[in-house]
């Protein structure tokens, strides 16, 4: 059976967790492919709210195999804390595995994330300071520690000691800060490794075998297309590949396994952290959407920047991910905000109209959004349970988004719960 992928198509927080949870009810396997505990995925199920950082959003279904692929960076105390919290709420981990090739986020990565952000001053990226970038740096530099190492104490000691000492030289000699206690960190992490050892298994093999047996596989994206290291607003991006191509390298499967790619979007746009955001709103409308949509980071609590729906970035996402459909969330949040705008193109100062997202921040800085305006709506749509029940203005708005994105909209979200998702 062809596998499905869910990716974020804006700057993260599009409601991927909700869509994964809905689709996971029909899946046998859910797999995370990239990112780390910089993600924050919210799932509302039976009136309970779960905030997941590293654990795949399929975990709420006891029969579902939940996997963390080789492309994910794992923070051991963070994942253990998450597992403990979920276990207290009755969630079981007997079908949960982490690939031995996944890299380990170490305390020096977190320290160096903060120090390099401080060094950048006003040009900081606004990272989550979870050590994600420095961990992927070590992976690319071929000096990283992997989950296999973590669960083999002698291997871990031998590799971690010189690495930690080198990082301490960066911390003290370059940044002038207090070095970390490498020996204490190693012993602490070996204890985490003992707890995580039962959960290590080759994810590439597990997914391949499940696929051969005709099982339904769902790949869970973290972050979003515009945060992609290659296709995003570089350098204001994360250090992994959230686009659908990242699923293959991040889990060890080939592209022929994938049949469907669903992009999660919001009916407007949000962004946490710094970087360009052409349709950003700085007025009362933006504040209203932030308050109504409770747009504060799931992970760091930071207020999210708000803007109108941007068709240019959506078309970029449709192309870069090979989207077969879109899920548009949070339409309900736009109720009562007045007339709605959709960005259909960018226009440069010299009058040139751009239909495609530019590669450089310099070119982007010259662009102004070209908007089309639509009547808003005041109805409370959170009780709608089918697309037909939506007011006509909402249907027209969705039809316009579909036309601008050049991609079918298959789901519309009118609230955070499982049953507030209207399938078309
Ligand atoms: P993710 O990172 O893409 O999984 O998204 P987050 O969980 O960080 O942020 C999305 C937020 O929107 C969460 O609080 C969800 O519960 C909520 N949400 C998702 N879909 C809808 C929707 O259709 N309407 C409303 N009002 N909230 C939604
Ligand atoms: P989910 O999966 C929104 C942003 C950070 C920052 C940039 C780099 O919940 O959609 P990093 O710590 O990754 O080096 O930070 O990326 N960022 C996210 N923004 N949602 C996320 O994940 C994010 N993960 C990282 O705010 O701008
Ligand atoms: Mg999130």
TrEMBL record:
Q: Where does IMP bind?
A: 13-16, 38-41, 128, 142, 223, 238, 302
Q: Which residues bind GTP?
A: 12-18, 40-42, 304, 330-332, 413-415
Keywords (A to Z) from UniProt = Cytoplasm, GTP-binding, Ligase, Magnesium, Metal-binding, Nucleotide-binding, Purine biosynthesis
Q: Which GO terms describe its cellular component?
A: cytoplasm
Q: How is the cofactor bound?
A: Binds 1 Mg(2+) ion per subunit.
Q: Which reaction does it catalyse?
A: IMP + L-aspartate + GTP = N(6)-(1,2-dicarboxyethyl)-AMP + GDP + phosphate + 2 H(+)
Residues that bind Mg(2+), according to the entry?
Answer: 13, 40
Q: Which domain of life is it from?
A: Bacteria
List the InterPro entries hit by this protein, alphabetically: Adenylosuccin_syn_GTP-bd, Adenylosuccin_syn_Lys_AS, Adenylosuccinate_synth_dom1, Adenylosuccinate_synth_dom2, Adenylosuccinate_synth_dom3, Adenylosuccinate_synthetase, P-loop_NTPase
For activity, the cofactor(s) needed are: Mg(2+)
- UniProt record, GO biological process: 'de novo' AMP biosynthetic process; IMP metabolic process
EC number, UniProt record: 6.3.4.4
Q: What positions does the entry give for substrate binding?
A: 298-304
Q: What is its main location?
A: cytoplasm
Tell me where it resides.
Answer: Cytoplasm
- SUPFAM superfamilies from the UniProt entry: P-loop containing nucleoside triphosphate hydrolases
Complex and partners? Homodimer.
Q: Which function does this protein serve?
A: Plays an important role in the de novo pathway of purine nucleotide biosynthesis. Catalyzes the first committed step in the biosynthesis of AMP from IMP.
Q: Which PANTHER family match?
A: ADENYLOSUCCINATE SYNTHETASE (PTHR11846:SF0)
Q: Which HAMAP family match?
A: Adenylosucc_synth (MF_00011)
Specify the protein name. Adenylosuccinate synthetase
């Amino acid at each position: 059976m062809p596998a499905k992928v869910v990716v974020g198509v804006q700057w993260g927080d599009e409601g991927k967790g909700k869509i994964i949870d809905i689709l996971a009810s029909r899946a046998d396997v859910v797999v995370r492919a990239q990112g780390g505990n910089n993600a924050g995925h919210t799932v509302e199920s039976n009136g309970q709210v779960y905030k997941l950082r590293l654990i795949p959003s399929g975990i709420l279904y006891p029969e579902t195999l939940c996997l963390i692929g080789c492309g994910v960076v794992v923070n051991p105390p963070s994942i253990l804390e998450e597992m403990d919290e979920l276990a207290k709420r009755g969630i079981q981990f007997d079908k949960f595995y982490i690939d031995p090739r996944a890299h380990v986020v170490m305390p020096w990565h977190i320290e160096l994330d903060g120090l390099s952000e401080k060094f950048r001053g006003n040009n900081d990226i606004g990272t989550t300071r979870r050590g994600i970038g420095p961990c992927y740096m070590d992976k690319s530099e071929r000096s990283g520690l992997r989950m296999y190492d973590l669960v083999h104490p002698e291997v871990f000691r031998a590799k971690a000691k010189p690495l930690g000492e080198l990082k301490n030289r960066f911390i003290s000699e370059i940044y002038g800060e207090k070095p970390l206690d490498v020996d204490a960190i190693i012993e602490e992490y070996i204890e985490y490794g003992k707890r995580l050892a039962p959960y290590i298994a080759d994810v590439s093999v597990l997914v391949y075998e499940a696929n051969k047996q005709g099982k339904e596989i769902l790949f869970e994206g973290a972050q979003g297309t515009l945060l992609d290291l290659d296709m995003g607003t570089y350098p204001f991006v994360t250090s992994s590949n959230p686009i659908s191509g990242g699923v293959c390298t991040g889990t060890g499967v080939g592209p022929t396994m994938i049949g469907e790619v669903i992009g999660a979007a919001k009916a407007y746009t949000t962004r946490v952290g710094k970087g360009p955001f052409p349709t950003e709103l700085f007025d009362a409308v933006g504040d209203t959407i932030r308050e109504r949509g409770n747009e504060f980071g799931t992970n760091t609590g930071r207020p999210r920047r708000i803007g109108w729906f941007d068709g240019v970035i959506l078309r970029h996402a449709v192309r870069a991910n090979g989207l077969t459909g879109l899920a548009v969330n949070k339409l309900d949040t736009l109720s009562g905000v007045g007339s709605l705008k959709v960005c259909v193109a960018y226009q440069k100062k010299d009058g040139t109209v751009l239909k495609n997202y530019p590669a450089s921040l310099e070119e982007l800085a010259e662009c102004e959004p070209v908007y089309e305006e639509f009547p808003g709506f005041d109805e409370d749509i959170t009780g709608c349970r089918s697309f037909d029940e939506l007011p006509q203005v909402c249907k027209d708005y969705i039809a316009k988004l579909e036309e601008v994105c050049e991609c079918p909209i298959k789901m519309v979200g009118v609230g955070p719960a499982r049953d507030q998702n209207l399938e078309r």
